[in-house]
User: Fold these one by one.
Assistant:
Number 1:
Amino acid sequence: MSGRGSRRLTWAALCLAAVAGGVLAGCPKPSEPAKTGQTGTPATPAATAPKVGEAGKIVIGFLVKQAEEPWFQNEWQFAQQCADKYGFELRKIATPDGEKVMGAIDTLAAAGAQGFVICTPDVKLGPAIVEKAKQYKMKVFSVDDQFVGADGKFMDVSYMGISAGDIGRQVGEALAAEMKKRGWTADDTAALCVTWEQLNTAKERTDGTTAALTKAGFPADKIYRAPEKSTDVPGAWEAASAVLTQHPNVKRWLVFSMNDEGVLGAIRATEEHGLKPKEVIGIGIGGATAVAEFDKKEPTGLFATCLIDPYRHGYETTEYLYKWIKDGTPPPKDTRTKGTIVTRETCRKVMKERGLL
Ligand code: FCA
């Protein structure tokens, strides 16, 4: 950040000098996108313009859709470790919508970046992202959420995601096992599934959990779906509240979703509806958000999470891209990472062992 800040100052100073010297034309605001020349390479703003990326230096971007979510903070942190190890410059940019993504690619081009890793805010932006990257001759590696083309099929762009279906199934099996352990019956128990079905990796997760629960004998008609409007705690809270209001007689709830945030929002809603922590079994997917909940003095309805691996998604994706840029080694096309169920008792320990704390 400070590096970027001081570069901005230098840029501003040069612009001022240029204005004083009557050279107004080529001085865009730092946030202004670089213009694309006929050849597809970014046009040099002016002869006096500072070169942001030093000659020969590798600059890589890491763009995430939800920078406030601990998962993405962790991806950034591990990507930075990779940058520090190899000595390249990493630009971490929050891109919550399409406009921000396009602006970020322009900014990266102006900084001399050769590529970026991205978790896109909308998978349908895939073709536009690939096209723009191509104009700037940048390489793209997609993480977490896989690009979808105009034909509705996944695009042929290197991708690392979680093994969503398997992870969802693990959550379902763990929910069924804990329900059995507590001696609950399906008579006064229902399941609350906070969904985000427009995203494949999210749908595969909740479908996997649903399949495992029904396989274990849980009645399919007692799994109530709550589509969220945003994949964060408030979004899940709102969606879950509506379902809980519709089913005031249910005494016990199993709760699952695409991530920890989805489950936590629903758990907050169960608390507001007067359910006690012991009457709720929530299992998330993630780790960093869950561990903060497990650290609370008293247990809450969050029973477990399926721990996934931000080190691989942050460090390894960035390393693949770096080696692709530096040595021309193409990265694998499709990498799926695994998850491990951890509880309040084991979460910190396992995260520590894996270097995730
Ligand atoms: C998606 C979700 C994140 C995280 C990631 C692996 O992008 O939105 O919360 O689960 O997949």
Note: Residues 1-53 have pLDDT under 50 and may be disordered.
Number 2:
Amino acid sequence: MNAPHTSASVAPRTEKMLIDGQWVPAADGRELPVEAPGTRATIAMIPRGGAEDVDSAVKAAAAAFPAWSQVAPRDRGRLLQKIADKLEAQAEEMARILAEETGNAIRTQARGEARSAVDIFRYFGGLASELKGETIPLGENVLSYTRREPIGVVGAIIPWNAPVALAALKIAPALCAGNTMVLKAAEDAPLGVLLCARICQEFLPKGVLNVVTGLGEEAGAALSAHPTVRKLSFTGSTEVGKIIMRAAADRIVPVSLELGGKSPSIVYPDANEDWAVDGIINAMRFTRQSQSCTAGSRLFLHADIFDSFLEKLSAKLAKLKIGDPLDEASDIGAIINEKQFKKVCGYVAEGLKVAGSRLLLGGLPPSEGPLSKGYFALPTVFANAANDWRMAREEIFGPVLVAIRWTDEEEAIRMANDTHYGLAGYVWTHDIGRGLRAAHRIEAGWVQVNQGLGQFPGQSYGGIKQSGIGREHSLEGMLDSFTQRKNVTVNLTV
Ligand code: NAI
Ligand code: MG
């Protein structure tokens, strides 16, 4: 384990937010600190935007909309491609900012995220010409066609766990389709998003993209309730997703929600092998402290391999290095903030007490030594868990994996689906027929067989049940989430 770096003596820089092409503080001058989870040092002060700032940003986006929506789609796409090139040129700077503010390790996570933002802008930039409509064959004397029109001002609210990738996933498709946007960055990780905004602003007309910083209950609530916002796109907790949906219901605006998960991983007896162990570690997103909505956090292991699989898993997990997110040697960084850290520790403490639990690895984090200087949680595995434990039902958003034994396949699938979430799922077996039958029966928006990788552009990604509604990462996602269809029907006989 390596020691966290110390930058506590460096004075925090002051950041501004982007409204109508200008970099501005909050109207009332209030600020919020941004803390580095690896050191607990305050690294920046950001505007604590409120209702007045949100209103200015929405007005700017509304004013920019008529002209932006009439830019030829190909030209909008070209601008997104230029943003991608600039993001690529600044990817290393972005990765360092991300590692410091999110606590995600630079080598295993932050660099990949900076690259993924480039890919997302490039992907959607290339799709501009696909904003096509249809013609409806009503006979020779009628021309009936549909147009894919932009919706208007989009209000986007994002979390902190992959802030720049998620910002890109809102900005690129929404702007490509001709909308303008007000994006509310997460209070815990706004700095990479502000760099992304700065790069976007070099190429975009003023007001097309506005980025507001501040708290959810203040700036976020004001944005979701603003009468001029015509579409809401949210990624974050199921709890806040419900609040957003209620705000949308009041004005009948469409909403996309990408919420939490408690995703199952079902391991068949023939997959008691190293590749499956590595895959489970990936699927659980241990190297991003499991702060991922798609984390495969319920591990259903067949009874025949239960102990031997867990032994291999623990041995591999024990080799991962936890420490300074900016250190190239670190595999695992820090939990985002004190609140989440305490929440994760609370689940671990409860797991240690629950009847029948067996701690295989990890446990409560050290209270002294170098790791105690930041929010470093240990990869933790509880064996002999039951699917009705709180740890097995609630999204922990931390590196706590529960292993549940199964013998009957029907029972494994029943337990996998016995959750109010439905975001992702994982199946592990050499028997591809069996694997695919299980994949089809898992109630989730995305099931991977024999791998535990991340999302990719082009995938219509999103959840079912309380994991959300709508899809955004693909061409269909852009069309469904960020355009509205209009039909025009013309009588050709006059
Ligand atoms: P959160 O859902 O409160 O925050 C996400 C975003 O929503 C932030 O930008 C926040 O400022 C904003 N927000 C919060 N309250 C709001 C409100 N009333 N109106 C409008 N916007 C609001 O998530 P938080 O508190 O950071 O994490 C809590 C839990 O949420 C985590 O433990 C995890 O279970 C889940 N989560 C899921 C994520 C996902 O990717 N699906 C990402 C982050 C958190
Ligand atoms: Mg919250």
Note: The pocket of magnesium ion (ligand 2) is lined by residues 216, 237, 240 (CB under 6 Å).
